[in-house]
Amino acid sequence: MISPSRPADEFGELQGLVDDLYRDDPAGVVARVDVLVRAEVNDLSEDLMEVVELLPAGRYKRVRLCDQLNSIITAHGWAYLYGTVE
Fold first, then answer.
1. C-alpha to C-alpha distance for 12 and 50, rounded to whole angstroms
2. What is the pLDDT of residues 48-69, one digit of tens each?
3. Number of domains composing the chain
4. Is residue 16 part of a domain?
5. What is the rounded distance in angstroms from the CA atom of residue 34 to the CA atom of residue 21?
6. 27 with 71: CB under 8 angstroms?
7. Phi, psi (deg, nearest 5) at residue 39
8. Short-list 9, 81, 67, 69, CA closest to 39
9. Is 70 among the domain residues?
10. In this structure, is residue 13 part of a structural domain?
11. Is residue 14 one of the residues assigned to a domain?
12. Which of 34, 46, 61, 83 could bond to 30 as cystine, CB 3.0-4.6 Å?
């Protein structure tokens, strides 16, 4: 069980996912399917995969993807456990 008094071991993994997606083209656009595939390649935990799977269909510039992910993270009350993304 995750202790609510400290972040999860997976803290920051979503930030790593976002960084990986935009590493080659920081101003680029990624599709939802690209995010899902990269999340699977990065072997994200079940909770973090749930966050990614809740992304609406579409294509995302970095800022919009971060806004969407942060909304989902916050709605689950997981910002402290897993961190937010930028």
1. 16
2. 999 999 999 999 999 999 999 9
3. 1
4. no
5. 8
6. no
7. -65, -40
8. 69
9. yes
10. no
11. no
12. 34
